[in-house]
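Notebook entry, structure prediction.
Reason for the run: the old model in the group folder had no record of what sequence produced it. Starting over properly, with the input documented here first.
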Amino acid sequence: TKFLDDHESSSLLSWYLDRLVDRIDPEDKENIDLRGVPDTPTHAVAHFVVAYLSDVDLRLRWKAAHAGRRLARLGHGEELKAILELYERAEDNVFRAPEKPYYWLAARLWMMIMFDRICLETPSTVEHAGKRLYQIALDSSFPHILIRDFAADACRKLHESDVFHLVNSQSWYRSILVLQRPAQMPSPRVRMIFSR
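New structure, fully documented this time:
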């Protein structure tokens, strides 16, 4: 037996995929906008995890958050950095069906829950995230109390682990410790606990 070189295997795979695609009925084919497909494995993993953080099924969100924790334990800081860059994402037509709703608020909340836990367990893998988490925690234009509180807790954990500091350490730490909450809402301390 002979192994195929790169060119031969590429030609064979292309021929076989064309045969498979031709067998699919046109109404059953998914048309994906290729401009939205990530160009690196790092970004593909990040998009995949964030897509699941936004799922309607709570169990899938939970699994995605745990996948993020596993990335941290394995030292994949670049993937976690790419996940945090997707915080503002409000739609996904590649990793989610375009006609299905994208729960962007759930994605943001579960992302902050995930980063809060990662900052406790493996803070060195997310030291790059400190500044962004700090911005999210103090973002008064988006007053979601749980998202801001989890981001603030993550900042506290990074600070206590001695991996994140800003120039004026006292003032920023005080602003995180006394995170302003809307006056008309009670502020119970809600915590979701990850099992090990």
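Summary: The mean pLDDT is 85.
The old model has been moved to the deprecated folder.
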